[in-house]
Amino acid sequence: MTTCSPVEEVDLLRKAIAVYAFPLVTFDFAAGGEIEHGGPRELELAIREKLLSGSPEEVKDGLSNVLHWGFARIAFGRKRVARFREKVTAEKLSAAGALFRGLSGVGLIEIKKLGLPQFSMMPFVSKIRMFLDPANFVTLDNKLAKLKGQAPIFEDLSKGQKATTIGITGPNEAVYERWCAACRRSALLLEDPAIIAADVERAIFQLVDDGDVNSAEQIVRFLATV
Known about the structure:
Layout: H1 7-19, E1 25-28, E2 33-36, H2 40-51, H3 56-70, H4 77-87, H5 90-102, H6 108-113, H7 122-132, H8 142-145, H9 170-189, H10 197-209, H11 213-223
Antiparallel strand pairs: 1-2
Helix pairs in contact: 1-10, 1-11, 2-3, 3-4, 3-5, 3-7, 9-10, 10-11
């Protein structure tokens, strides 16, 4: 592990974190309206408290908000949330709540085994893991997977034959674990206690989303050396 970091990559990362602009919203299903949160920590806490509440209805709202947040910029997002709420059973919600409260380690395969509607592939299963512990776990979605050719940390990631998104397999979970570890180490490099692993991942996502793939690739290559 390196003990210092190139100034350029660290500066790029700080700037990307500063301009991250994904909607900070959840949905109040009782009141029927969105809630705007003051920042990422407030958003994360709101969803995490629901996921860990132990109440099947609260867990249902927490998982619904993982979807609501993840689909915030996508027109069909609310239909996906509604479909989840219609199809999920009380038994699955109870099992999910028990798993979430006792989960240790990466846990993506365990979460997938719950069989929750809309939560079978890496992008949204990893979002659950991130919201449960954003200081240590992050999201791995299809936009980041596009960096595979230029980012060694993702080179073993496989979508499988005919797959349009990232499946959850043992090898893919191992890639995810390495990605989380790199984001954790990089957050420490920035020497700002307010910055956590999830902020690092979101910053790189923001660069890809903005079309600055070169900067994203540069940072991810650097993260693999930290």
